[in-house]
Amino acid sequence: MNRCFALYRLPFAQTYTEVVQTEGHVKQFDSCTALNGRSGFVVAPFQVSPSCPILLIRPDHISEHPIEEVATVEEAVSSFQLHRDRYATDFAAFHAQLEAGTFRKIVLARSATLSPNRPIDPKRLFMLACRRYPRLFVALVALPNGHYWLTATPEILLEGIGSDWRTIALAGTMQLQDDELQGEGETMRWSTKNIQEQHYVATYIADTLSRMRLSFHEEGPRTVRAANLVHLRSDFTFTLPDASRIGDLLHALHPTPAVCGLPREDTFRFINTHEHTDRQYYSGFMGPMNLHSPLSTHLYVSLRCMQICPDAYRLFAGGGLLKDSNEESEWQETEAKMQTMKSLLGI
Length: 347
Fold this sequence. Notes:
Shape: globular
Number of strands: 19
Order of helices and strands: EEEEEEEHEHEEEEHEEHEHEEEEH
Strand content: 35-45%
Structural class: alpha+beta
Radius of gyration: 19 Å
Oligomer: single chain
Number of helices: 6
Largest sheet: 10 strands, antiparallel
């Protein structure tokens, strides 16, 4: 069995945490509800399947370390496969459903395959991401199949200590340019499309918490920066009486319309049937669950992802489509999102 571990750095933290399972097989689950009462580092996919189960890395050894200084990477990639034609085909199929009124929103994902010209230590890429993206949750996970997943994501799915919990609605994307890079995006003017997209996500989360009979407080939306992008974010804080049942709440929340669409069940089925991209762990979630003292959980949606294979790097990105979405604009948004990982490879 390959050694399984996770490295993660919480936003603005000065250290990172290493979680190692030293022996035995990593536990696999087919439902979020199976996570009730468990602890470890969780890696969950967008869609659970036999080849892509929910994984729980057992915390046999946990340690804290300072973030290392590492040299930047140069000329790490020899070729690209952007799959532009595939995206155009998917966009047409997805957008037709929006024009017909079948869906209010649907998220279209794509990947790009990069061929390395020399191997790079995944831990080096993790350290670069920690240094470059202090606002984001950064994690590197070594899976049983020998692949690594690296993410640098701004989106909290579920986070809490004791009975105090929160989640967020994060949607809408704009790219910072020129003088805007000196600030936090406070001067950006949001389009109706972006505002509506974020509103859909916020409404879904509010409805979900209400169905779970959880009293919550909502703040936002506000503009937040993530690398060279900005998003609209609303925060939801609530009390969770029984933290041992967080698997039930995860089952209700995931996947949110931020990575799926509305209606959720219908768009989820459509994505899994028609999208050319095999998302695997992209747009799932990962993070520590019920670790440390006091017990704390920090689960983030797996965005800005890179799958590190022996002979390729696979980058993932997606965007929310509405009826008035434009294919070229949406493609450029995914390109901007992929730059978070591309820059680590010196691209």
